[in-house]
Amino acid sequence: MNDLIIFVLLFAATGAGWWLGRRRAQPAALPMPGQYYKGLNYLLDDRPDGAVDAFINALEVNTETLETHIALGNLLRRRGEVDRAIRIHQNLLARPSLPRPHVHQAHLELARDYISAGLFDRAERLLLDLVKDAPEQRRAGQRHLLEIFQSQREWSSAIEVATALLPRRSLLGSVNTEVLSESRQPIEVVLAHYHCELAAELLQAGDIAEARGQLQLALSRDRNCVRASIMLGQLEYQAGDYRQALKVLRKVRQQDADYIPETLPTLRESYRQLDDGPAMRRYLEDCLQAHPSAPLVLALADDIREQAGDDAAAEFLSEQLSHNPSLSGLAGLISLQIGHVEGRVKDNLAVLERLVQGLIAERPTYRCGHCGFAGRQLHWFCPGCKHWGTVKGLFGNHVG
Ligand SMILES: [Zn+2]
């Protein structure tokens, strides 16, 4: 009987409501003892729905008992008893005598019930009314609307609501920094990712100009949004503006150096299109010195191999591996050597290569810095903790 605790609380709350009503000598607020004992019977018979009905009837709705009704409904929702929470909150809204602020509060709780039940359309209708008509619940309503639009991937609507939630500068120039999204991330960070999501949809539809505009908006909201820079670099590369692609991608180094590896494929292709190998080599060497990572080592080794051959690349890789060991570096070194040996040595190297590749395939490549969620894909929205932009590549020293 896992509902026992919750209904003992219901029972206790009803009793407390009855006692308060009697103590304050308000005969109209007194519950009917019959309903009270009927509820208790339902509880003892393990019939929780009957118990909820009996308690609703026993504890009259008024300004004194409203908080108790709301608290019980919320408790049921948190326990996953959403249907019962909805009945309790709907019961409140069926009372025309309830003062407007209380009606709005019950509306908000009912919207939260609907969200928990996955009834997003109903929740959205309630919240839109609330945002329009109830100034005291507007911000809470907007935050829940944001939650719905985000889960439904309705990015334009999410952008509209998030923009309305942005901190406003006061006349004295101070900014209200309390305004954060549900995940407690700054709203600007979240908003920038919404613009990136919209840009990705526009790119799929082939609307490059609109997508570019959305990515620039993302950067205007959060100038450290690496995702917008990476996407913009890819967009400019596809549009044939290789210099602009490089300009945007090189900014990632200042925004967050942990994301440099994500820029390397488009960056290298852009330098190739411009036929500017020396500039690319200088950039890769600078990055490697300041922010060593396995993908940078491999990119440089690749460049050295193209320019000076396998031996020079192998020498560079061996030297790098001695102070920045990495599995992918080792795999690169083996693949450089395997073409230059024969017989048993070649066979042994092939076995070693398979082993190293197997180890690489087993290891996660990305991890969320907030919740530790690990995987082999870069998720801009962490599936574990629902934070934006907290997943990074594990490409630093001694890994990858
Ligand atoms: Zn996470």
What does this structure look like?
It is built from 19 helices and three strands. The chain has 400 residues and is mainly alpha-helical. Strands 2-1-3 form a three-stranded antiparallel sheet, with no helix packed on it. The longest helix has 20 residues, at 4-23. It is elongated, with a radius of gyration of 30 Å. The two termini are 50 Å apart. Zinc ion is lined by residues 368, 370-371, 373, 382, 384-385, 387, 390.
Q: Determine the structural class based on helices, strands and strand pairing.
A: mainly alpha
- Order of H and E elements: HHHHHHHHHHHHHHHHHHHEEE
Any low-confidence stretches, pLDDT <50, length ≥5?
27-32
As an assembly, this protein is single chain
> In total, how many domains does the architecture comprise?
4
Rg on CA atoms, Å: 30 Å
* Structure annotation, total helices: 19
CATH topology title of the largest domain: Serine Threonine Protein Phosphatase 5, Tetratricopeptide repeat
Number of strands: 3
Strand % is: under 5%
Can you list the strand order of the major beta sheet? 2-1-3
**Backbone shape:** elongated
Q: Give the class-level CATH name of the largest domain.
A: Mainly Alpha
The CATH architecture of the largest domain can be given as Alpha Horseshoe
Please give the alpha-carbon distance between the first and last residues. Answer: 50 Å
